Amino acid sequence: MKVYIPYDNQKEREYIIDVVLNEFLGIAYTLAFHNQKSWILELENGKKLIINDHFFYKFPKEKSYLDEGNIPKKVLYIQNKFIATINLPLLYGSNKVQLQNNNLICDIDIFAAIFFMLTRWEEYVIKKRDHHNRFISKISLAYRNNFYNRPIVNEYLEFLKNMLLALGYSKPFKQRSYKLILTHDIDHIKAWSNPKRFFMRLGGDILKKRAKGFDIVKILFDYLKVLLKIKKDPFDTFDYIMNLSESIGVKSYFFFMGGGVTKYDNSYKAKQAKKIAQNILQKGHFIGIHPSYNAYNDVKQFQKEKETLEKTFETPILFGREHYLRFEVPTTWQVWEDNKMAWDSSCGFENGNGFRCGVCYPFSVFNILTREKLNLKERPLIFMDASVVDKYTPNQMEDEIFSLICQVEKYQGEFVLLWHNSSYNTIKWKKFKKVYEKAINYHKKRLQK
């Protein structure tokens, strides 16, 4: 396939063409430039898919698109014979697709929309932050227009594939298979590391009315059993997690902390988790990093923590997720790139679940300021336990997780699930344990088909 793109914003255009055609669809192509305001994909049979440019041509000066005013003002929902889903969100362009002289002319700017979702430039130009200095998901375009729970990039990819097929494209697209990626952020290795912490947790449960008479007595007895080494600490769920993962032929990813300088860090030292990490590695599971609260935009702090984990656990550290999902575009990705990390999985919603990047495939990231495609891959986080625990009943959580799984399965993508090791055996969490187990059992049933 021959691809022609305009001369402006070359690095941005080259990036999104390569991710869409090469990484996502597996299409081999050659690239050339032209003076038209369109993206042209010319097939081997000579027919062309012409996608009108409704975004980049407006910004001939490098990076001048980076302005809050360039976020779409209104999102329309469209349908045509090439769109495989109902009501595809239209970010740039109009719902016109017409055949002219054996060429398809598409007025929906697919590439601008996908670039918008993957690079998260929206999060750079909107400066409002929450009390943890995080981008507020609920002010994103996806949340405001109610498509945050849809993988719209995957929907756009299907739309693109259908237009290419209609023009006679005959080569196979990249073959994929659905994957469950089980990840576990290790904020604490013990619930009751000392008597003070035990009574603080118990007091908190009593004040929040989670613990009453019988519960209090049971917790006291459980604590005594832990002290006598008759019973495991409530957060010592590592073997339980690994056994469940292994029952469906999956290995879990455990992300440990290696330091920190704030009140949100240092509930344990890396050396205190060494035996746990050794056990995880011996069983063939994976160890990654959960950088401390302030490491998301501090390359040296990140490096220090990574080196601490590598030295203590005697294993390379190549992947992980940011603590509190603190993430800054494009700084965090560059911090990970500079530390030679393979992939990050921080791009999930802090107060909900869905598709922050609009996609359920891993992808190469782009630094919008240096205008460079990085070696780092992003594996978007789809579901996090803690994001809904205070808002949902177990049944509601179950409904949401399976709704998201079904969408990821549809596109043979990766369902990246975060379930903390500390999200099982406390009063707050024990009623949700069955949700995680049902998700595991669902995948077990898939294997048996």
* Envelope shape: elongated
CATH architecture field of the largest domain: Alpha-Beta Barrel
Report the biggest beta sheet as strand number plus sense, adding barrel if it closes: 6 strands, mixed
For this structure, the CATH topology of the largest domain is TIM Barrel
Query: In the CATH hierarchy, what is the superfamily of the largest domain?
Result: Glycoside hydrolase/deacetylase
Please give the number of β-strands.
17
How much helix, percentage-wise, in residues? 25-40%
Which structural class do the helices and strands define? alpha/beta
Would you list the SSEs in sequence order as H and E? EHEEEEEEEHHHHEHHHEHEHEHEEEEHEH
Rg calc = 24 Å
Average pLDDT taken over every residue: 93
- Kindly give the count of domains: 3
Q: Any idea of the CATH class of the largest domain? A: Alpha Beta
Word description of this protein:
The protein is α/β, with parallel strands linked by helices and 449 residues long. It has three domains: 165 residues, no CATH class; 229 residues, Alpha-Beta Barrel (TIM Barrel); 36 residues. It has 13 helices and 17 strands. The protein has a six-stranded mixed beta sheet with strand order 2-1-3-4-8-7, covered by helices on one side. It has a five-stranded parallel beta sheet with strand order 11-10-9-17-16. A four-stranded mixed beta sheet has the order 12-13-15-14, sandwiched between helices. Helix 1 crosses helix 2, helix 2 runs antiparallel to helix 5 and helix 12 runs parallel beside helix 13. The chain is elongated and about 80 Å long.
